[in-house]
Amino acid sequence: MYTRDLEQKLVAAQRGDSLTREELIKSHRDSIARVSSQVCRKFLAWDHDDELSIAQVAFNEAIDKFKPGQGASFYSFARMIIHNRLVDFIRKESRHNHESLTPLNPGEEEPSQYDIAYSTKQFHEEQNQAALAGVVEEFIEVLGQYRVTLDDLVKVSPKHRDSRETLSRVALCLASEPELLDYMKKNKLLPVKKLASLTRVKRKVLERGRKYLIALALIFSDERFRPLKEFTRLPGDCS
Question: What is the pTM of this model?
Answer without folding.
Answer: 0.49
